[in-house]
Write a structure and sequence with these properties.
By secondary structure, this protein is mostly helical. It has one domain. Helix content is about 70%, strand content about 0%. Helix 2 packs antiparallel against helix 3 and helix 3 packs antiparallel against helix 4. The chain is elongated, with a radius of gyration of 31 Å.
Length: about 160
Amino acid sequence: MLNLNALLDFSRCNCVGICAFLVPINILATALTVVQVSRNHSPRLIHLNIGFASLAAVLLALHDLSWLMIGVIMAPTYILFTIALVCLSFNAWAGCHPHSMRQLVLTLINYCQKGLTMVWPPFIPNPLLQLDPIPLNRAVNIRRYQSQPGIRTRRQKQFGIHFFI
């Protein structure tokens, strides 16, 4: 038979391990849910991920409630409880209104892209510095890629060779 006191004691004694496992799983699973909704994955896959992320959020909330039951009122307790509730609310939003979540995420991505182009304009390469690649799938005119007569190469300048090829 399951003893509730033993379960609560286990939760409090292994707090560091439980939090080190549940917090990243909670955040990553919720982020994966948001990504899946925004990329329009299949509803079955989204609901499966919502169930897993919600389970992690409920477990984290129950773990925090075990501390609140004995009267431990500290900042980490509230922070972890807030993380659990935010992740649970995001999962509920993804389950109830996935279209509005998708629209909001795509709008935010669009604004971020516009902001980045204002801060860091796109790089336009100089056409004079572009290299002409040698094609590999057809015959190549080797003379085109050799040094031109009248133009000294770096090696010729280095050794003082002043004749033209």
